[in-house]
């Protein structure tokens, strides 16, 4: 599974998306995706959510500006949870950008 941040990152939210596993690698029909994310450097889980298999994106909200988060996604089927995809890290926009923009426009 390929996990990637989208161009929908702002000061307090990040949207990630992924491609489903190849049918030959699924080991059964995917019923859900499990999404987890952590704040880099804090070594604590921020949130873990499950969503339906037909939704291939997730938006994490109420994040801290200028902070890097690591996301992982795994597929779930009737057998259980599969391995998590490689970690993808992305950073919310820092608040200084908004302040600079408002002063220079």
Describe this structure in words.
The chain is mainly beta and 105 residues long. It has a single domain, classed as Immunoglobulin-like. It has one helix and seven strands; from the N terminus they run E-E-E-E-E-E-E-H. It has one helix at 95-104; strands spanning 3-5, 14-18, 32-39, 45-52, 57-60, 68-76, 88-91. A four-stranded antiparallel beta sheet has the order 4-3-6-7, with no helix packed on it. Strands 1-2-5 form a three-stranded antiparallel beta sheet, with no helix packed on it. The radius of gyration is 16 Å and the shape is elongated. 12% of the residues are buried. The model has no long low-confidence stretch (mean pLDDT 85).
Uncertain parts: none
Spatial order of the strands in the main sheet?
4-3-6-7
According to CATH, the fold-level topology is Immunoglobulin-like
CATH architecture: Sandwich
* Proportion of residues in helical segments: under 10%
Q: What is the C-level CATH assignment?
A: Mainly Beta
List the quaternary state of the chains. Answer: single chain
CATH homologous superfamily title: Immunoglobulins
What is the CA–CA distance across the termini? 42 Å
- Beta content comes to 35-45%
Please give the domain count. 1
Shape: elongated
Radius of gyration: 16 Å
The number of helical elements comes to 1
């Amino acid at each position: 599974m390929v996990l990637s941040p989208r161009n929908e990152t702002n000061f307090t939210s990040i949207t990630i998306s992924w491609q489903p596993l190849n049918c030959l690698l699924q080991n059964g029909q995917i019923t859900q995706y499990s999404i987890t994310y952590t704040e880099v450097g804090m070594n604590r889980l921020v949130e873990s959510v499950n969503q339906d298999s037909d939704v291939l994106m997730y938006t994490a909200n109420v994040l801290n500006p200028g902070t890097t988060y690591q996301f992982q996604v795994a597929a779930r089927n009737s057998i259980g949870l599969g391995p998590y995809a490689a970690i993808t890290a992305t950073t919310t926009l820092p608040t200084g950008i908004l302040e600079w923009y408002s002063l220079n426009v």
